[in-house]
Amino acid sequence: MRPNATLVALLAAACLLGTCALSRVEDMRAQERLFLGSMGLSERPRPAGNRLPRRNVPSEIWRMFQRSENSHARESDPCTVSEYGVRGNIIRYVQDQGALPSGWSGGCLEKPLYFNVSVLQPVELLSLAQLEIKFHWKLLQGPRALSMTLYKVIRATLRGADPKAGRRPVLSQSVPAHPEPTSVTLDLTPLAESWRRPGRNYGLLLELLPLGGEPGEEQLLPFRPGNALPLEPAFALPLVRASLVAVSLNPHQCRSRRRRSAVHLPVTPSNVCRARRLYIDFKDVGWQDWIIAPQGYLANYCHGECPFPLSESLNGTNHAILQTLVHSLDPHVTPQPCCVPIRLSPISMLYYDNNDNVVLRHYQDMVVDECGCR
Ligand SMILES: *[C@@H]1O[C@H](CO)[C@@H](O)[C@H](O)[C@H]1NC(C)=O
Ligand SMILES: *[C@@H]1O[C@H](CO)[C@@H](O)[C@H](O)[C@H]1NC(C)=O
């Protein structure tokens, strides 16, 4: 980490927050917290940096990130997720934390699913929670279809009690068992909303049963005692990957603003108030381990004098015009107006949260487009 660059980046972050008046960075940690706070994060995410390999970024979310990068140049609502047709500025791929299935028992396979939706902050409004279950059968022979039932678990069941008593079916359908991956999606918004209340999330249970007595069925049941194992047990287990796409809206980060019109600021020396180029490289701030993309961005900053007489191009308010006038009469008593951002635009960021979920978020007011004397 280059300390100077870090300082510059943090000062710029402070500028973006409108606290440019800070003449020096006394406590960089405090500044970092302030900046993270403005991003709706209570602390710097510390994804499993040492628990590699890291979760891949789903291709859908990459495409959404790239689309949003391009759409920032156009006029579009940053608080609507057009891909899902709902309001929102945060898209999370919440990981399934349920245990792995232990194997086929009694002709059926059970996979618990658990999505920690507490990663959503209380202020966020949940617009959509869509469950996606992907099956990848590593099976070449066997039943051509399975019956899948998804239950919501409504309470913890004690050992020995009837496990069926504590669950309610949510969805029942058949899934084909061919070598190509298949997936099932389901809108779980009301259920996920109920999970946000403390102590209410017991997760889901996925149950799979082979359909019909088709040839090769026994290959799905390698655990039956006395059976010669026709296949390696792991070979007969399907790969079940579940994720919950949660789209939410942080209303505090959603004021209507004009969007960026691809600013490329000229680099010309001048003492007069204007937007200056500043590229913030997240590596310089030590954030490369949690920010996936972009690696940095052109944040810019405002700097320069607001001299008397204030010209129109400095976008001064009437108040600023009067202040420069008073300043020119007695510079020691009244300072010049400040050179501050008057138009900012958003960027999108893709990052890992503490639970290693992939999050796509649209942040307003990240890029200085225009400055003015205020
Ligand atoms: C869920 O996430 C929250 C916030 O990150 C965390 O405090 C909590 O321990 C997590 N719960 C579980 C069961 O993982
Ligand atoms: C003032 O606003 C105009 C457009 O509204 C812009 O072209 C100009 O660069 C702004 N001035 C400064 C100092 O940024």
Write the layout of secondary structure elements.
Blueprint: H1 3-16, H2 28-38, H3 59-71, E1 80-81, E2 86-87, E3 90-95, E4 109-113, E5 125-136, E6 145-153, E7 167-176, E8 182-187, H4 189-195, E9 204-210, H5 233-236, E10 239-249, E11 274-276, E12 279-281, E13 291-293, E14 296-298, E15 301-303, H6 318-329, E16 339-352, E17 358-373
Antiparallel strand pairs: 1-2, 3-10, 3-17, 4-9, 5-8, 5-10, 6-7, 6-9, 11-15, 12-14, 13-16, 16-17
Helix pairs in contact: 1-2
The structure holds 2-acetamido-2-deoxy-beta-D-glucopyranose (2 copies).
Largest beta sheet: strand ordering:
8-5-10-3-17-16-13
Shape: elongated
Level of helix content? 10-25%
Largest pleated sheet: 7 strands, antiparallel
- Order of SSEs, N→C? HHHEEEEEEEEHEHEEEEEEHEE
Counted by DSSP, the helix tally is 6
